[in-house]
Amino acid sequence: MAVKMMARYDLEKELSSKSEYDLMASIKAHPCIVRPIEFIASESWTYLVMELALGKELQSFVSGK
Questions:
Q1: What phi and psi, each to the nearest 5 degrees, are found at residue 3?
Q2: How crowded is residue 47: how many other Cβ atoms within 10 Å of its Cβ?
Q3: Could you give all domains of the chain from N- to C-terminal order, each with its CATH number?
């Protein structure tokens, strides 16, 4: 699993992360799409738990590096 961890200081960013989770969760299973597992909001942190994708980061892949 992979965890995207964000400090809970920016409500707009947190809502964006929740929207990202909801969008990913609404997509049917596909081998090229990372599956979200759970969205957790604690008092000071927000966590987006998802399937681990091995290889390059998307930014590196897109830029050809």
A1: -130, 125
A2: 16
A3: 2-63 (3.30.200.20)
Residue 2's identity, in one-letter code, is A
| 13 phi-psi bin (left φ>0, alpha ψ -120 to 50, beta other) | alpha
Joined together, the tokens standing for residue 37 give 């597992």
Both tokens of 28, joined, read 């049917």
| 54 alpha-carbon distance from chain centroid | 15
pTM of the complete model:
0.69
Distance, CA of 13 to CA of 56 (rounded, Å): 25
3-state SS class at 58: helix
pLDDT in tens, 12-54: 888 888 888 898 899 888 888 888 999 998 888 989 899 988 8
